[in-house]
Amino acid sequence: MAMKFEKKEEGKYMLDVCGYVCPHPQIYCKKSLEKMAEGDVLEMIFDNPSSAETIIQMLDQVGHELVEKKQEGGKIIFVIKKG
Amino acid sequence: MEMEAVNTSEKKNKFWAFAITGILIVISLLYYRENIFYMYLITYIWFGFAYGMMLQYGRFCFASASRDLFAAGVPRMAVGILVALVFFSFIQATLSSTNMSTFHPAPFGPHTLIAGLIFGVGMVLAGGCASGSLYKIGEGNGTSFLAAFFGLSIGQAIFVDLGGIFNSLLPKSWIASSALKEIPAPSAVPPEKITSWFDVYLSGYIWDLPSVQLSATKTMSEALPGAWKYFIADSLITAIIPAVALLFVIYAVYIRKGFIKKRVKEKGGAATGIGDELAGIWKMITASKRTTLMGVLIGITAGLHIFVMKGMRIKFEADNFGKLLTKMGHTADVAVNGTVFDPGYWYITSQEAQLGGWILQKLGWEMRDNIFFGVNNGLPDPWRNPALWMSLGIVFGAMVMARLSNEFKFKLPKGELIAWGLMGGLLMGIGSRPALGCNIGAFFIRVAGGDPSGWLYGLGMVTGAFIGVKFFNWWSERKMAKEMEAF
After folding, report:
1. What would the pLDDT profile of B242-270 be if each residue is shown by its tens digit?
2. Nearest chain B Cα to A4, which residue?
3. Cross-chain Cβ contact B255/A30 below 8 Å
4. Which of A14, A45, B84, B466 could bond B299 through an S-S bridge, CB–CB 3.0 to 4.6 Å?
């Protein structure tokens, strides 16, 4: 099974971890953000509701901004700006 | 068009939420109509259902407690569990003081730590603890199903029935001690039931160990008169003080630095004091309101569950559901001493092993020739297994809650997740049986009941989770590096 981490354009990244269960989405989110520069934006797509609660708190603690949060069917999309 | 599809999906989810609840109500009524003794089993169904709803809403998973702390520095679940523990232990003490508790401490020994460690690695690999895997099945998570069915059910049943070469690896002292307990039928342990390595482990090692409940120790019962021993020894000393101390440690290690930095910035560089520290602790506790709130509710519900089960036992004059099954004529369901697995409180894993044992028995594997199924827990048909109904209640309660929040989604396990689910489930099964419980039965219930061995299991779980996280960190780093080759 593959996760996708792509650079869409300068300063814009996409992480798709649909199908993955805990703890993979939160670990991949953390690692993706570590590889980005301050101010870069990450669009993260996942479908494991339990990971959302952890990711929201992780972003708040570290100082990243959750710019947008939406749900499409069973998929959750977070747009995160690295702080 | 897209909006229409979303509305249809929401309607479908709501329909299923009501349909599942309706079916469970009809099942409960049918059992009640069949025999009033089934009220006992119905109680398990609905407490399971309530646990399932709360676990799903609070994203309440014991695996997440230590795993997310180590992997992401997020303490929300550790906080939730410790809060639940504080409330549950207080209710437990109240029940013990009024002789309304069904709690019993477990044999204390190093096996608890080792089992906890194996379980801890397993729960990280599987993506959920024993109770967490059940609520995630309710969310449509196929990996959790693999872990619970093949690991916890089938794997655990095989684990307790293994003999042959495994018996030759056992210490001589266990074999000698076990032989002393081979008392012919119809007494407690007929010799023909000591066949597997686990039988010798139980009868030659576990049964020789002392059980500790702090309120029952000589020092505490002499120092604390009447009901005080339950509130001070079992609740305050064993559960509440360590839980509060752990909250402070988690705050100091994971939250304090970042919080105080923000606070100083907000105050324009002013010095911080005790008020800021308390604000930081409060922020940590309320950071995930849904998890903390569910911690409070789960703690209270787990206490209420014990109270209701004790009430049922008094009403039906039976300390085990096996006696009621026997009265109803289902003698094949019970073990040789007339009992089935009936914990009297929130518990996972033994009932999953029973399901696995029942399936294997149907396939021709003799499963009643051991102590676990043959002497203690029986192999009831799944539809008459009270604790298994509690587990099904958790799955369906979580499914209803996930449907109501439009979070239900079938996710078939693919690729590496199949391996992690199977391995994790198996390790959880191997890690729960020797300790006679899992994250619920061996940690949560025991600590709240004044049994310090619960903390030993907890320490093992946390250490195991640390190892599991280290492995996943390495694994995901490797995958990320491959992905990043492209840019």
Report:
1. 999 999 999 999 999 989 988 888 888 77
2. B483
3. no
4. B84
